[in-house]
Design goal:
The chain contains no helices and eleven strands. The protein is elongated. The termini are far apart. The model has no long low-confidence stretch (mean pLDDT 96).
């Protein structure tokens, strides 16, 4: 079994920054891509960013330049640095990871989510 645990969410003023973390643990053989999604109240979950095992990144067009995804393969952890935050960034942020377990099965896991609220 594999678990993803997010941290780093909270309340921040407009223009501020937050850094989210998501650590994977359990029966991990390898992790392919890791990513972030978010879901605002009353809206569908939307993709934010993805990073591959080699460090290649992709971002939602609307977030390029403000958000940066990175990962530490040794710690099985993915990060999301969010700068110049806006009220519309308020959402629950979820991480995911495509994990090959020690039993060699491949599965997409999700974290439980962390709340980010941007408000003055």
């Amino acid at each position: 079994q594999v678990q993803l645990v997010e941290s780093g969410g909270g309340l921040v003023q407009p223009g501020g920054s937050l850094r989210l973390s998501c650590a994977a643990s359990g029966s991990i053989f390898s992790i392919n891509y890791m990513g972030w999604y978010r879901q605002a109240p009353g809206k569908q979950r939307e993709w934010v960013a993805t990073i591959t095992s080699s460090g290649s990144t992709n971002y939602a067009d609307s977030l390029k330049g403000r958000f940066t995804i990175s990962r530490d393969n040794a710690k099985n952890t993915v990060y999301l640095q969010m700068n110049v935050l806006k009220p519309e960034d308020t959402a629950v942020y979820y991480c995911n990871a495509e994990v090959r377990s020690t039993g060699r099965s491949l599965y997409l896991y999700w974290g439980q989510g962390t709340q980010v609220t941007v408000s003055s």
